[in-house]
Design a protein that fits this description.
Oligomer: homodimer
Strand content of chain A: 15-25%
Helix content of chain A: 40-55%
Radius of gyration of chain A: 25 Å
Largest sheet of chain A: 7 strands, mixed
Shape of chain A: elongated
Structural class of chain A: alpha/beta
Chain lengths: 342, 342
DNA sequence: AAAATTCTGATTGACGTACCTCAAAAAAAA
DNA sequence: TTTTTTTTGAGGTACGTCAATCAGAATTTT
């Protein structure tokens, strides 16, 4: 019951090692009939190529680029750290990761960065950016040059990505709404949703999921129109002041994206945090502290370490043309309260 | 900037390859001074051994045994499935896993199973069992024979385990209490905690954590004495009937171990589920269905796939004498609601 | 200084795969 | 049939490491 090797395939198929090698690496110069014989032997013996031995022989280095927004957001920082930590580990041998920062909130910057990639020196690309037609085109070109592509965090459903690594934003929004509904004890009231920009696909999906559950399960809670923060703390403070004034019956806040710090500071200034249920996204040093300080009640998170490792594993699998172990790559929607902070 | 190999170490240290090998694999026959020279070279060049090449050369097979309770519990079943799936994957190459079932709730059975292990044909052991002096002794013996040991799910803090794989039970109990407190909307009431047996270390810890938070943060909720289920559905039904009769102000149930099915069925029979907050442990086909059916409000879970892979990785690392990538092995306390079921 | 002991070097052969060459065999075309 | 072309076989080297041997060098002991 020991693992079959190329030698076993060769004798099973009644051909030489060289022929097996030619078939396995789809090199030319083998008759169709012989190819079939070899493939039958592979099938029969259940041969799987030892990728590590193969990489050893091939001296392969995986060269991956990660396009991440160059924002001050703590989340991107923790993601970057997780990425470097993962690629340092022995688990990730032969993997070279280059982080390419792109200006946040600038679709042109993303396209420029994509065009700036030297595709001859690249095997895989992970990208975290909103989908625009230009991005789509640039990715299609890169894909054509044989580079594996995964979308990180925010999916690019219409682009030529091979895989999406991140949580289902709609379900994340639904989870936030469920917690909001269960955490608010008042009989009725208004809920404010805050995001950085409603252009991002994940913000839209979160909002949709949030509204769906609130409407259906907790009709006593009413959502106000989404407020866009746009990386501007002053704007946030102003909006918060305004909302608190117009809606004294505000009972909850759902912060869908970054900007948690500005949001918390805004409400703290008005001393409104004690009677508000606050649900935010992503575990960062700031949200962690706010959870412990009881300023945030729950955080919807995704494990950045898992995210980074998953992206690397998937890119590697795509490069090798190997199947992905789906169960390991499904990123869970974490509910973090102050009692189960990792 | 290419990865240094043993050859580089050899020339850097001015010794031969054989000597480098002797040092790296801590074989004897090298002068202390030479060892130092080699280690300095390793340090200087930042050499890390290519474990895959090493395993290739060594033709090592890791033989691991998993001692799991032979209970009808769905949880153990899903764990077993996750284990087999993980050891099938290419990620877990050269790993042989044998599952050894032990009679549940029978400390002697565990000891017998431990003595029945052929330690000459074993490299690592994962064990899920309560800690008794006999178990402790048996593990100490196995440890002395050079076998790596990890405790699964329920820690064996005083035994000779190398590592514990599972969640912090105290924190899990605290998390359950937090959710209970936030989910119950009544002004006051009683909370019932149910477990299989208060002998198990994790049940005790969960209860402690649960009580601590409830007492401190939600003093309007009162916990009743823990009820022990003891794998007996009839007993459970009877107890439930009794509790409901004596405590009409029951508002919540915390099910700390297995037996969720008997518990739910007991309350369902009395039509009490609608106005009770139910928090249970472990995601199984049953709890998943009960979540979706709104009979359970939240499940405190740990990802069994992660658990299995983590145990395998840790055993392998211990066999290799290699450091563990802690961040990857920390099992998170998952809060599962009906909106974020994985 | 000689003998005994401890270290070290040089070398070899795995492990499973990739990739290359050269010659021989088989098939196809003339 | 002969020639040309296409397939195949046999063999080698390499990747980075382990494991082993044996001879010779360095060190310590007598």
């Amino acid at each position: 019951m020991v693992k079959p090797t190329v030698h076993d395939i060769a004798s099973e198929a009644g051909v030489s090692l060289a022929t097996v090698d030619r078939v396995l690496n789809s090199r030319s110069g083998v008759r169709a009939k012989t190819v079939e014989r070899v493939q039958a032997a592979v099938e029969k013996l259940g041969y799987v190529r030892d990728t590590y031995a193969a990489n050893l022989a091939r001296q392969k280095q995986y060269r991956f680029a990660f396009l991440l927004p160059d924002s001050a957001s703590q989340f991107v920082g923790t993601l970057k750290a997780a990425l470097l930590e993962a690629s340092d580990t022995h688990l990730m041998e032969r993997i070279n990761v280059k982080v390419v920062p792109v200006p946040a909130q600038d679709p042109h910057g993303v396209v420029r960065a994509l065009h700036g990639l030297n595709t001859t020196k690249l095997d895989g690309l992970a990208i975290m950016a909103p989908e625009t037609p230009q991005v789509r085109d640039a990715l299609a070109r890169i894909k054509r040059e044989g580079i594996a592509i995964v979308a990180l965090l925010s999916d690019l459903p219409n682009a030529a990505r091979d895989h999406f690594v991140g949580i289902n934003s709609y379900a994340a929004g639904r989870t936030a709404a469920f917690l909001m509904g269960r955490f608010v004890h008042k009989n009725r009231g208004k809920v404010l949703t805050i995001t950085n920009s409603m252009l991002a696909r994940d913000s839209i999906d979160r909002r949709l999921g949030f509204d769906a559950v609130l409407l259906q399960e907790f009709p006593h809670l009413m959502t106000l129109p989404s407020v866009e923060f746009r990386d501007d703390a002053d704007r946030m403070a102003m909006i918060i002041k305004e909302v608190c004034a117009t809606h004294p019956d505000l009972v909850g806040i759902y912060s869908m994206g970054s900007g948690n710090q500005a949001m918390i500071e805004g409400f703290r200034a008005l001393a409104r945090l004690d009677d508000l249920v606050v649900i935010a996204h992503e575990l960062t040093p700031f949200t962690r502290k706010a959870l412990l300080g009881k300023e945030i009640d729950a955080v919807i998170a995704q494990n950045v370490g898992h995210l980074a490792r998953s992206a690397l594993r998937i890119l590697r699998a795509k490069c090798d043309g190997v199947a992905i172990f789906e169960a390991q790559e499904r990123i869970r929607i974490d509910v973090v309260t102050r009692e189960n902070i990792p």
